[in-house]
Amino acid sequence: MDKLENSRNLVKFIAKSALDKKGGNIVTLDLRKISTMVDYFIIITGTSDKHAKAIADDIGIKLGKEGIRKWHIEGYSYGHWILLDYVDVVVHIFLEEERLYYNIESLWGDALIERIEEENVKS
Known about the structure:
CATH topology: Beta Polymerase, domain 2
Shape: globular
Largest sheet: 6 strands, mixed
Oligomer: single chain
Number of domains: 1
Order of helices and strands: HEEHEEEHHE
Number of helices: 4
CATH superfamily: Beta Polymerase, domain 2
Distance between the termini: 15 Å
Low-confidence stretches: none
């Protein structure tokens, strides 16, 4: 668990979990210099509500095994925009249409944005 107490390591762990479940278009927004409430957003696209839920479930299970519990969850029952709040890291799992509509990346335009690929999250 110690390795995941650092928010950047937590981001990599979550991103790897999302990649394992074939989450798409994964990006992180580094908010440390522009927000006092959260360090990072992770934005992931799922292909269906079941896929989005599977991504959310996998993240929760893997972090639970590391002793990390989410503080809050929203949108799980509908599955079009699931928010997992891990305090310093907030995960947004969208379906494509909702992701385009809400366009969180542009709302936080001052954030450093990193596109996550498999090679970014190798240990």
